[in-house]
Write a structure and sequence with these properties.
2 domains, 5 strands, 48% helix
Length: 203
């Protein structure tokens, strides 16, 4: 998604495997490189890929022709064209805000599709998880330490019950298959199975 600093979005379940952001396209359809900002006090600078710096005014930043949602998995959303005649002298941060919001919603749809394509969980299980979450939140209001202990119990249960399934999955499932089933990239899926299976990620 580029090496410059910018705001990104993640979900608790998929984390950096599906980190989203607002991407920029130039008039020729290319993705611009990060914009480098010198630090006035010396000692280096910052490379920035935040969409609103591409207004053709700041430093050597080119002017964005369109915004689109991008994801660390390689997915990209539809283009949201920017009308510079209408933008005029407005700050891109303000004038492009609606397009950026649409990009975030597009990425939300993408992560929902990732969730649907992952291996399904029984409704009885998801209902139980939802109930446990509610119980811990309620417990936290009267006893935060008890809520922490309850969460710790779930953590212990997860490590105990996932041990053999994780080892079997590592043995039987192709890395690409495991990644798709878990909604992660192959590296993250390998690390997750290694953590639950208590083994090195490259065995």
């Amino acid at each position: 998604m580029g090496d410059g600093e910018r705001e990104t979005w993640t979900t608790d379940e998929f984390g950096p495997s599906h980190a989203g952001a607002v991407g920029v396209l130039l008039a020729d359809g290319t993705v611009p490189p990060p914009v480098y900002f010198d630090m006035s006090s010396g000692g280096g600078g910052r490379s920035v890929s935040q969409w609103n710096v591409y207004d053709g005014r700041v430093g050597q930043a080119p002017r964005a022709a369109a915004l689109r949602a991008v994801c660390s998995c390689g997915w990209t959303g539809p283009e949201q064209r920017l009308d510079w005649e209408q933008i005029g002298d407005q700050e891109l941060q303000d004038a492009g805000g609606r397009a950026a919001d649409i990009c975030m919603r597009d990425w939300d749809v993408h992560t929902a599709e990732v969730e649907r394509s992952a291996v399904p969980l029984p409704e009885s299980f998801t209902a139980l998880v939802s109930q446990l979450e509610s119980e811990i939140e309620t417990l936290a209001k009267s006893s935060p330490l008890a809520a922490v202990r309850a969460a710790r119990c779930l953590e212990v249960i997860a490590m105990q019950t996932a041990y053999w399934p994780a080892r079997e999955a590592r043995k039987d499932a192709h890395p690409e298959q495991a990644a798709a089933a878990l909604g992660l990239d192959e590296r993250a899926a390998r690390q997750l199975l290694a953590r639950f299976g208590r083994s090195g990620p490259y065995r």
